[in-house]
Amino acid sequence: MANTYCTATNFGKGFFTHEDRNDFSLSGHAGDVWVVGNNAAGVSWINRVTGTGKTKAEAQAIVDGKVEESQATWDALPEAEKAPTAGFESLTRPEKYILP
Amino acid sequence: MATYKGIKGVKVVTKTSDPTASEAEATVWYNSTGDALKYAIQGTGAWAAGGNMSTLRAQDGMSNAGTNTASIVVGGAHPPTYTPTNSETYDGTAWTEGNNLTQGRNLSSGAGTSTAALVISGYYGYLSYAPEVESWNGTSWSEESDVNTARAQGGGCGLTNTAALLFGGESPPHPVSNSATESYNGTSWTILNNLNAGRTQNTGSGSSTSAMTAAGTPSGTTIVETWDGTCWTEVNNLNTGREGRNGAGANNSTGLVFGGRSPYIALTEKYDGTSWTEVADLATARYNGSSCGTTGNALLAGGNPGSPASEGSVTTEEWSDPVFVIKTVTVS
Fold first, then answer.
1. Yes or no, beta carbons of B218 and A28 under 8 Å apart
2. What pTM was estimated for this model as a whole?
3. Given an 8 Å threshold on Cβ–Cβ distance, is A89 in contact with B310?
4. Closest chain A C-alpha to B14 CA, distance in angstroms
5. DSSP secondary-structure letter at B238?
6. pLDDT for residue A77
7. Which candidate among B177, B271, B312, B327 keeps its CA 20 to 30 Å from the CA of B213?
């Protein structure tokens, strides 16, 4: 398995270092979900930041829940702010996506 | 048996503590405290977590000539709440709240350093354009001359609060993306030659006499232009088009562009004076944070991570290139 999954709160400086980024892949997602390269350095990082291990399905469910919250927030915006403008990037309704 | 001294001409030095990785690059030493043989190498550029800000921000402004150890961030938005007025300065470890802007704003442009900065134009709030400029002297903000064309989401750059450049951005009536360029000399703004491609949500990096702008919208463009003090010239395109104003660079021959949308991306590209090369990704894809620095040392603060949409972030990422790392020799 190329990736492993956890939740961890980004506490700021030192949460992940330049060396970490050279040693394993890492990407952050909504709900404090982190997709971590599944090697010794990645597993060590999860322990270092006191991450809570998740299965991919559990991690995906957390992200999906956050996206749904975000969709509700977006739906409540005034219509003028949601209106697309030809040729321009506008605020867009958040969409669910599949974690790597 | 070959020895280290035989190969390198020097003995492995014993040290009680590790040197810094950059000092020790390409050397080997024995750490007597940890009982480990170690070496340092030069790795590729990478993003690391920086200190978290105290205020959740997206669409914030920053001193573009700051560094990842000295910068200032101001204003921003957390829709539907717009235009916080507070500023925070960063020392490479932590953010410290400073005096407030007089006029809160979001999607402003910026120039200068953590001790001599400008916050330029922007929105007062949704589609309300601010012509005002404020100058930071390291302690407080003061009102300066207004820009000629009020705009938001434009590119800005400059090394100090008395030498800045403003280009592109969105001007009324919404959504006109303009190509206008203005420079500031510490007293007034002067209209200069336009961008070739009008756009908004474009990056700004460099100085008032040697600058770069990349990306932007319409259409999440790949177009890049460089400024030589007189006019803009189109150079090679980015590999991946995007909007979002996250960029860094010291002049018109070096540049770094990172993140953006749509979709929300973590991709980072580096310009060597000729072409763009994709390098290491951000840890968190985001757009419309604020950024500063150079291709060797940059900072991205806040921004919209895409999901949850409309929210900002307190997190920051620091770019270093190259990265020096210490490794331990494992004997099996």
1. no
2. 0.90
3. no
4. 24
5. P
6. 79
7. B312
Average pLDDT on A44-50 reads 97
Segment holding B270, helix H or strand E = strand B268-271
User: At B182, is the pLDDT very low, low, confident or very high (cuts 50, 70, 90)?
Assistant: very high
Q: Are B65 and B111 in contact (CB under 8 A)?
A: yes
Complex confidence, ipTM: 0.85
pLDDT tens-digit map of B129-150: 999 999 999 999 999 999 999 9
CB of A75 less than 8 A from some CB of B: no
Distances (CA, A) of B302 to A34, A51, B31, B208: 18, 22, 39, 25
Q: In what order do the strands lie in the sheet with B109-112?
A: B109-112, B117-120, B133-136, B141-144
Chain-chain contact of A74 with B44 (C-beta, under 8 angstroms): no
Position A87 scores a pLDDT of 47
**Per-residue pLDDT averaged across B303-327, rounded?**
84
Select from A28, A70, A91 the Cβ nearest to the Cβ of B308. A70
pLDDT of residue A6 exceeding 70? yes
Q: Sign of the C-alpha dihedral, residues B20, B25, B27, B30? A: positive
Q: Which of A12, A22, A89 sits opposite B49 (nearest CB)?
A: A12
Choose the mutation target among A10, A66, A85, A89 for the interface with B, i.e. most B CBs under 10 Å: A89
Cβ of B177 and A88 within 8 Å?
yes
Give the max Cα distance, chain A.
50
From chain B, the residues in CB contact with A12 under 8 A are 49-52, 94, 315-316
Q: Does domain B46-320 have CATH number 3.30.450.40?
A: no
At B3 the pLDDT is 77
Structure tokens at B66: 């700051």
Distances (CA, A) of B165 to A11, B10, B254, B285: 35, 52, 17, 28
pLDDT at B192 over 70: yes
pLDDT reported for residue A64? 94
Structure token digits, residue B223 = 């177009």
Cβ within 8 Å, pair A15-B49: yes
Interchain contact, B307 vs A27, CB within 8 Å: no
- Mean pLDDT of the A38-44 span: 96
